[in-house]
Predict the structure.
Amino acid sequence: MTYSHLKDVLYPIKVFYGPMFSKKSTNLLKMYIDSKEPKMIISHTFDTRCDSDVINTHDGDYVKGIKVKSIYEILDMKDYKKAKEVYIDESQFFGKKLYNFISKERFKKKFILAGLDLDSDLNQFGSLLDIIKLKNVISHRMPSKCYICNSKAFYTLCVVKKNGQILSGSSEYKPCCKVHHK
Ligand SMILES: [Zn+2]
């Protein structure tokens, strides 16, 4: 039996990206729960919102998942080999490696991703902004609500003095509009 015909299969990638509290994880989890395909869900070990084997949202929904430090750790996992769909939460923490990983693995599996596009200094965070430029990607830029004026918020503000990286679930970060991001 030959699998050479599979070489050209380019599965669609779905991406939910935006600031904190924009329901990215909620959408990811909803799709994961609704899907009847063989699937797995992962997050990064930096995701400290809950226990190590649980993926959850700010709304309190959760499912059993796996947390890893490097995306390449999942390659040898039984669940990964069986999965047709791979759901990745907190994608920003996987850095540039996620782009390389997905560019190759998307010929074998369907990926659904959620994560931040920018850090609180408005610098690119991880590789979602590169991934959405790939072919056959359906991306949803998710707005939150500005914590000051309640209008659409696409940015995350650090309300204490700190640099760069955003730690998930932290109360030190607020979603905000461009006007109130300083
Ligand atoms: Zn505002």
About this structure: The longest helix spans residues 24-34.
